[in-house]
């Protein structure tokens, strides 16, 4: 979790964590778009919020539990493109690059993620790793 609630949000938007993804993680609001959900899920990985990740995962593809890799720190999210996923859509795609440091080495995860509306909220369905 950011050391101070006033620190920038890990998702990359220009707001403090408490006013950005922190609001979604605390259940004070829902993501209005698939991209916003993707950003909040990245932040949840960065702050180790497994409960939020599981709550925002589609029931058909959600694992029973989630463990975080020791020594892995998510640092920066880069949105490459989005398709659909707006407030009026039922499906959306977000392609992103998530930058991390693991055991002192920098790396990157490039994924195309699918999202759908379920019970009137955006949820993550699955993703395809890109080279």
From TrEMBL:
Coiled coil: none
InterPro entries: NTF2-like_dom_sf, SEC_C_motif, YchJ-like, YchJ-like_M
Residue ranges annotated for the YchJ-like middle NTF2-like domain, each copy included: 33-127
A Pfam family this chain is assigned to: YchJ_M-like
Domain of life: Bacteria
Family under the similarity heading: Belongs to the UPF0225 family.
Protein's UniProt name: UPF0225 protein DZF91_19735
Source organism per UniProt: Actinomadura logoneensis
